[in-house]
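Why should sequence recovery work at all? Because a backbone constrains its sequence more than one might expect. Tight turns favour small or flexible residues, buried strands favour hydrophobic ones, and helices have their own preferences. The token representation captures these environments compactly. In the example below, the structure is given first.
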């Protein structure tokens, strides 16, 4: 009996590890990437400032970054997701209806988590140097609240979390399309945030990791609660008794 019990416990442990292998992978990546990303902050910023020159604020590249960030913000991403959902629903494609709706939920939650965090960390934006010494000042500094003060809302990146929250669901559901389309678009938003001086590489790195864990959680645990009533109404046929997994 003890041997049988030990074997069963081992099997249960292996099953649990297999079920949570993706967040475990993210954890080990975070252990390496987050400290490394902080070491990239100063060299990357120094290189960008040196390359941008004195006319940076009027340059076409800055305007391009601003446009990318505008279209990579939450309202525009929700518009893309809603259009994708409606087209999939019109075509009767339940799988992609679920994917788009899940992506919208994950994007929203990832953005909310990042924005709630950055209101309290008090980290200065790269472009505030040398007027403000770079650092984490928390929600209160030198007799005033820093919550809601843009210069101190750098960590983590809300734009990046929102964009990668959406893209991560696409990657987990359709790896090829995710890698070829969704991730490059989200990465463009992340790089534009760095290039324009709104965020440090570490801000972006943490947001990407956060977005993937939120996306995985929504897809794994939240989809059954928030998706079926939207997907199964209207022209979409009822879900199969054994629906295909999207992870």
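From this structural description, the recovered sequence reads:
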């Amino acid at each position: 009996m003890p041997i049988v019990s030990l074997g069963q416990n081992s099997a249960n442990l292996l099953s649990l590890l297999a079920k949570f292998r993706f967040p475990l992978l993210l954890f080990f990546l975070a252990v390496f990437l987050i400290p490394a990303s902080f070491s990239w902050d100063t060299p990357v910023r120094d290189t960008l400032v040196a390359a941008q020159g004195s006319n940076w604020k009027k340059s076409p590249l800055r305007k391009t970054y601003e446009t990318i960030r505008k279209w990579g913000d939450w309202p525009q991403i929700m518009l893309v997701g809603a259009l994708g959902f409606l087209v999939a629903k019109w075509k009767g494609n339940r799988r992609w209806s679920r994917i788009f709706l899940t992506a919208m939920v994950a994007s929203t939650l990832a953005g909310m988590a990042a924005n709630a965090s950055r209101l309290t960390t008090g980290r200065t934006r790269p472009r505030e140097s040398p007027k403000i010494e770079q650092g984490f000042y928390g929600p209160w500094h030198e007799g005033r609240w820093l919550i809601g003060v843009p210069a101190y809302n750098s960590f983590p990146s809300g734009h990046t979390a929102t964009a990668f929250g959406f893209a991560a669901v696409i990657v987990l559901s359709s790896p090829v399309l995710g890698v070829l389309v969704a991730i490059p678009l989200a990465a463009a938003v992340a790089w534009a945030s760095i290039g324009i001086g709104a965020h440090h590489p570490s801000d972006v790195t943490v947001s990407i990791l956060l977005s993937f864990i939120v996306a995985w959680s929504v897809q794994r645990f939240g989809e059954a609660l928030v998706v079926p009533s939207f997907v199964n109404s209207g022209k979409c046929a009822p879900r199969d008794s054994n629906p295909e997994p999207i992870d």
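A few observations help interpret the result. Residues 235-247 have pLDDT under 50 and may be disordered.
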